Amino acid sequence: MPVFREPIRLAVLLQDLEFGGTQRYAIHLLTRLDRSLFDPELWVLRGGEDMIPQAEAAGIPIRRMSTSSWVGPHSLVNLAFHLHTRRPQILYTLTVVPNIWGRLFGRLVRVPVIVSGYRNLLPKQHERFLWRLSDRIICNARVLRDIMVQKHSVDARRIAIIHNGIDPEWFCPDGIAPQRERRVLFVGRLVWEKDPVNLLDAFRLVAQRLPEARFEIVGKGPMGKELNQGIRRYGLESSVTMVPGSEDIRENMGRAAVFALSSADEACPNVILEAMSMGLPVVATRVGGIPELVEDGTTGILVPPRDPAGLAEALTGVLSDPAKASHMGLMGRERVVSLFDVNGMVRKTEQALLDAYTDGRRRWAVPKV
């Protein structure tokens, strides 16, 4: 690693601090960054309190552009002001709205280096036009790199592929009873990308075959009302439990026999790695970067998206074969420990940031006359 006179001033820009995989990624990264190399801050465009305790406990300085529930003119004016008056040496933008406005304002006020995160299959962030504003783009799945190059004509030399990482010592199955309940667990935002309606349709089919099965949905979002209506319509009130998102989901995972994710649009979901690290087999849709995480038939089962019958068949098979489920869980745990450790992810991200910074310093250098 290079040595600098002072740590590089880094601002990581998020839309909010509600429960979510990107928010967890940002806090893991900021908590573990080498402070001899980086002086980091977390900038947030709007309100959302869920993960503030984690950020504060890690000692991460937080600068909030607004406490509103949406990103409006006040948020954007404050962002431009902060970029101008507190100009970071590296701005790292994450999620759609920060990727749009952070890059535009960052270039206008001459932030030296801008790194952006590309963590969804097809985010509506005008990438075809804006990628040139990024010195580096960090994708958390190979499939995203391919989309950027093929669909948006991005220069592949600007892209770094860094999969998500989690802490396997925190997400550890030690002490969990070998005989888990026949419980299916989903954790995630209740938004169309996660396709929770497809998941509920699959739950209904599983319940018909295994009446003793239970289903737990952990999360919140705009589709929560529709899910509750579906639960009542299907008569699943005694089988399905819905609870809000939680800072610590290990207890939920400890009660489950299998983790399910029914996404129609996904990249590299942290929650799959967390479930695998906890020794859970995973049944998920074959979309985005999920096949880069789950080995089909070894650590879980992959099914086509928007196929509740296929999802139900896979879940029923895992619930009906505890020995197979246990073996898949053990193999998933081994895969996370060897390939997706959070410290490895942080070191790779540090290197990508340093590479962008070094290239930027060369660009700023004025030739001597």
How does this structure look, described?
Helices cover 42% and strands 16% of the residues. It is α/β, with parallel strands linked by helices and 369 residues long. Strand 5, helix 5 and strand 6 form a beta-alpha-beta unit. The chain contains 14 helices and 13 strands. The protein folds into 2 domains: 181 residues, Rossmann fold; 157 residues, Rossmann fold (3-Layer(aba) Sandwich). The strands form 2 sheets. It has a 7-stranded parallel beta sheet, sandwiched between helices. Strands 10-9-8-11-12-13 form a 6-stranded parallel beta sheet, sandwiched between helices.
Task: Give the topology, please.
Blueprint: E1 8-14, H1 21-32, E2 38-44, H2 52-57, E3 62-64, H3 73-85, E4 90-93, H4 96-108, E5 113-118, H5 127-130, E6 136-139, H6 142-152, E7 159-161, E8 183-187, H7 196-209, E9 214-218, H8 224-234, E10 240-243, H9 250-255, E11 258-261, H10 270-277, E12 282-285, H11 290-293, E13 300-303, H12 308-319, H13 322-339, H14 342-364
Parallel strand pairs: 1-2, 1-4, 2-3, 4-5, 5-6, 6-7, 8-9, 8-11, 9-10, 11-12, 12-13
Short précis:
The chain has helices at 21-32, 52-57, 73-85, 96-108, 127-130, 142-152, 196-209, 224-234, 250-255, 270-277, 290-293, 308-319, 322-339, 342-364, and strands at residues 8-14, 38-44, 62-64, 90-93, 113-118, 136-139, 159-161, 183-187, 214-218, 240-243, 258-261, 282-285, 300-303. The chain is α/β, with parallel strands linked by helices and 369 residues long.
